[in-house]
């Protein structure tokens, strides 16, 4: 909890008041995305981590793509951290994929305490924008923003394929900033459904 509070304070300090007001909220919508597995370097130790392995044992995972210099991501970052802290004990996971900035810039964004959840890197330069998987997913889901930060996709590990590149054809995505109340409800309901599913009815 202390780490979360420090992170939120750092993020809010980085965002000017005017920038905080310029939100790009987007609804949570199920889309055909053809989302693939990846192995990307962890920000903490530079070692590659495999997404399929990373989500094992979780009930719901939010993968958020972000650029640390983006004002809209800085608006969303405290929300993502808050949701993670609220639901992590119930099987919710957040994985952040950094885009279009160096790893040192990403580390500077999260500050000395580091990120509260796993962060990996897909690209490190703005010139890579239209070469990333992130860009391709945004095109498939109708995201017309130039940079697409933040871009959120929700994965249900138990429904993902067990092998091969393709993890899932369809998924719930947010082409912009999270609408906190809607996403909070979505997470709560999905976790409750999955918890109920593992409880066997009593049989006489």
SSE blueprint and pairings:
Blueprint: H1 2-14, H2 17-20, E1 28-36, E2 39-42, E3 48-50, H3 51-54, E4 60-66, H4 71-87, E5 92-98, H5 103-110, E6 118-121, H6 133-140, E7 151-155, E8 166-174, H7 180-197
Parallel strand pairs: 4-5, 5-6
Antiparallel strand pairs: 1-8, 2-3, 2-6, 4-7, 7-8
Helix pairs in contact: 1-4
Q: What can be said about this structure in brief?
A:
The protein is α+β, with helices and mostly antiparallel strands and 204 residues long. Helices cover 35% and strands 24% of the residues.
Walk me through what this model shows.
The chain is α+β, with helices and mostly antiparallel strands and 204 residues long. It has a single domain, classed as Glutaredoxin (3-Layer(aba) Sandwich). The chain contains 7 helices and 8 strands. The chain has helices at residues 2-14, 17-20, 51-54, 71-87, 103-110, 133-140, 180-197; strands at residues 28-36, 39-42, 48-50, 60-66, 92-98, 118-121, 151-155, 166-174. Strands 1-8-7-4-5-6-2-3 form an 8-stranded mixed beta sheet, with helices on both faces. α4 (71-87) links the parallel β4 and β5 (92-98). The radius of gyration is 17 Å and the shape is globular.
């Amino acid at each position: 909890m202390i780490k979360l509070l420090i992170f939120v304070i750092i993020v809010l300090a980085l965002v000017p008041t005017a920038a905080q007001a310029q939100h790009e909220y987007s609804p949570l919508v199920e889309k055909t995305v053809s989302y693939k597995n990846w192995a990307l370097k962890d920000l903490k130790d530079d070692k590659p981590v495999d997404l399929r392995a990373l989500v094992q044992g979780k009930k719901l995972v939010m993968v958020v793509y972000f650029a640390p210099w983006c004002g809209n991501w800085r608006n969303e970052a405290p929300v993502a951290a808050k949701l993670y802290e609220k639901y992590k004990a119930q099987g919710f996971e957040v994985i952040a994929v950094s885009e279009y900035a160096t790893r040192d810039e990403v580390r500077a964004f999260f500050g000395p305490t580091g990120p509260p959840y796993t962060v990996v890197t897909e690209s490190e330069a703005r010139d890579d924008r239209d070469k990333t998987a992130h860009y391709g997913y945004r095109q498939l889901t109708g995201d017309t923003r130039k940079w697409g930060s933040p871009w959120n996709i929700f994965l249900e590990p138990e429904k993902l394929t067990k092998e091969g590149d393709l993890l899932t054809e369809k998924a719930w995505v947010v082409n912009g900033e999270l609408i906190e109340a809607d996403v909070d409800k979505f997470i709560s309901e999905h976790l409750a459904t999955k918890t109920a599913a593992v409880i066997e009815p009593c049989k006489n």
